[in-house]
Amino acid sequence: MSTGSFENWAGNIAEIGPIYPFVGAEWLFVLIGVVYWIVWHVRQLGNENQSLADQEQRLKAGTLSKTQGD
Amino acid sequence: MTDQLSALVTIFTEFYYWLTVVIMFLIHVGFCMYEVGASRHKNHMHTLMKNTMLIPLVTITFFFFGWWIYFALPNGPGFTGGLVEAPHAVPWSNVMGAHMGGADDAENGWARINGVFWAAFLLFSWTAASIVSGSVIERIRSGAFWILAVAIGSVFWIIDAAWGWHAEGWMVQLLGYHDAYASGVIHAIAGGFALGILVVLGPRIGKFAADGTPRNIHPRNPWLVAIGLFLIYTGFWGFYVACNIPIWDVQSGDGVFYSATNIYLGPTTLSAITFNFLMSLAGGLLAGYWISKGDPFWTYSSGLAGIIAASAGNDLYHPIQAMIIAIVGVIFMYKMHGWVERRFRVDDAVGAVAVHGYAGVFGVVIAGFVLWGYPSSPDPSYTSINPLGQIAGAIIMFGVLGFLPGWIIARILHASGILRIPEAVEIAGLDSAVRAEVEADEQAIVDAENESAARLT
Fold this sequence. Notes:
The complex is a heterodimer. Chain A has one helix spanning 26-61. Chain A is an all-alpha fold. Chain A is rod-shaped and about 75 Å long. Chain B has helices spanning 4-38, 44-52, 54-72, 114-135, 142-164, 170-175, 183-201, 222-242, 270-291, 296-311, 319-344, 352-370, 387-415, 423-428, 432-456, and strands spanning 245-249, 258-261, 267-268.
């Protein structure tokens, strides 16, 4: 059993081609990657909005010190 | 790869690009240091993370679609002419991963070179996004910036590369566009994109007096800025080398003649670009020191601007031509920066629009005059280099693919309420919440130590 498309280095190396595991499932890797990328942006935007809103509220309430200038 | 000579050429080429990628990484170390050094203490952490995180985001998106765009879109004018098949550059291709080569066809022929060539272009992509990053510091939301970074790093710059840098790009064929080391392809477009965002984003609070007079917000850590810019120079040298092809038969007609080539497969040498890189750096530094009256920030930036101003033709210029072009380019970008800042109240925090945008435009245009009539490509059917083609190229790079998309995307982000940070946060500093946490942690440690000390006495 092998997750790769070959089980030993014998024979013609050039005929092996790709040497990463699960050859043939590249479309799935791409799908997972693209979904992760989009979800990352969505989650990050949500978190940042929340964080900035909290920060603004704390500044207005005076529970966070205001740095002037520097 | 079955005889020693072809293996030597292939593996040397693979190693050559790999090495340029490592050297170019210094550009991004430099950009991080430079931006943090230029920002105020209250924004340091935010500034650092904003720049750093463009690296993974542009990397994955350049894998998903950026690389494919370069090979798919050289036809034109514009988006006409149809897509070119690029089986080696789609993200599900076998050769977009570890591959031992094999059948000598269009896809497998890329096996040994695809990863390092992709990475070299990826480092250019990071650069395009990083140029924009500096100009918008201290008031842009990170999430908005990262969307913009993906747009410039994995979409717009690589479209212009397909048009004006690809050996068969329509701008090279029809306009005679020549931009060997990317005055326009990287720098002018990134500068234009930054300007488009800045127009929508607005200046930092306090940057302009009520009558519109600009105030300087000086770099808080000049040493970090200086080291950052030195590292950018170093990485830029690697960038020059990455724009060449190290071994190529450049002989037209009978016979064989191996040489390094520029990105268009036209002959040049590593010596030529080494002469010109250093002479244009020197010209830029000398002019910057003189025109800014010794201001360190502008002197260092002018070294970079000098190289950028000469880059379009640095494969062919005489070293003293490169130096003179750098001097004039630096004076032009410095004057333009001051004029745009005063006239339009644009707050370009690190002068990125000037150093990259204006100097890049100057570099593209001047190459059209100095190299007028030179072949733009080894293919004799292509239009030769000419001023009108270069002027049109500069407009496309800075305006059409730079300023316009930057402005449109920034408008959309602004309308969605996610472009700029709240005013109160800007005044307090983007790191104010983090600072409060650090201070609370520190206080907790001090309290614990005091309790322990009290028990001992």
